[in-house]
Amino acid sequence: MMPLSLVRSRNFTGTNALTLLLYFALGGTLYFLPFGLIRIGAIPRRWPRAALLPFALIMGFGASFAGTLSDRFGPRLSLTAGPIIAACGLVLLAFADLRGSYWVNVFPASACSPSAMTITVPH
How many Cα atoms occupy the beta-carbon half-sphere of 85 within 13 Å? Predict the structure, then answer.
């Protein structure tokens, strides 16, 4: 069992709240984006998985680089910069025109969110 004294720690509580909110937003985005792309007809029904491929590729190839940066600059910077970049990606996605070109409207947001997660996750 987890000692309850950890809950009194601001760092512990803040980090867990940040993680909860970040994964909540990310989960909603990854769940609803393919449905939105299919419903509007921006991409064929067989391509929504490919629309999320940049997420896996950026996180997969950027993880070691983000870990190195995190070791060099410390957790505070990565736990601050990552969620700010994720918020920018979510704002880009909120105002994206899904009927337009995928590469112009959706891809920048699809690349911004995994970059943020790659920065945040090593801690």
Answer: 18
Residue that the structure tokens 């990552």 belong to: 82
The tens place of each residue's pLDDT in the chain, 123 residues long, gives: 778 888 888 888 888 898 899 889 888 988 888 888 888 766 777 777 787 888 889 988 988 888 888 889 888 888 889 999 999 998 998 888 878 788 888 888 888 988 998 888 876
Can you give the pTM of this predicted structure? Answer: 0.81
| Residues 56/59/64/68 CA torsion (nearest 10 deg) | 180
- E strands, 52-120, are none
Count of alpha carbons within 13 angstroms of residue 113, beta-carbon side: 25
Amino acid at 22: L
CA count, 13 A, side-chain hemisphere, 41 = 0
